[in-house]
Design goal:
With 129 residues, the protein is mainly beta. It has no helices and 11 strands. Helix content is 0%, strand content 50%. Strand 4 and strand 5 (46-51) form a beta hairpin. It is globular and about 40 Å long. The N and C termini lie far apart (40 Å). The model has no long low-confidence stretch (mean pLDDT 94).
């Protein structure tokens, strides 16, 4: 089992920045590819960004490219999502998740929520315009 705890959400104004953290505990001896998803009110949860197990490869949803940066700190078992130039449409609950370690992290699979084994409880991000 892996437990994930997100933090860093809050209420900001458009153009501001936030950094979300996702701390993993439990079976962290294996390094996993991880992703951030988000769910806005009345909408389905959607993929935001992913990072490979070794941190060499990252992927982003088109709407956040150039504004969001995913990274990881192995010593702290933590994955981050740096969000800059926030927009009102970024308002959502943000979740981190552990990708199926038995699969390659590719563009065909990383957006599929059923391919993720563990999820955090989410952190709210609200951006006012």
């Amino acid at each position: 089992q892996v437990q994930l705890v997100e933090s860093g959400g809050g209420m900001v104004q458009a153009g501001d920045s936030l950094r979300l953290s996702c701390a993993a505990s439990g079976r962290t001896g294996t390094v996993y590819a991880m992703s951030w998803f988000r769910q806005a009110p009345g909408k389905e949860r959607e993929f935001v960004a992913a990072i490979s197990w070794n941190g060499d490869t990252t992927y982003y949803q088109d709407s956040v490219k150039g504004r969001f940066t995913i990274s990881r700190e192995y010593a702290k078992n933590t994955v981050y999502l740096q969000m800059d130039r926030l927009k009102s449409e970024d308002t959502a609950v943000y979740y981190c998740a552990v990708f199926n370690p038995g699969l390659p992290l590719d563009t065909g699979l990383m957006t599929k929520q059923h391919e993720y084994h563990y999820w955090g409880q989410g952190t709210q991000v609200t951006v006012s315009s």
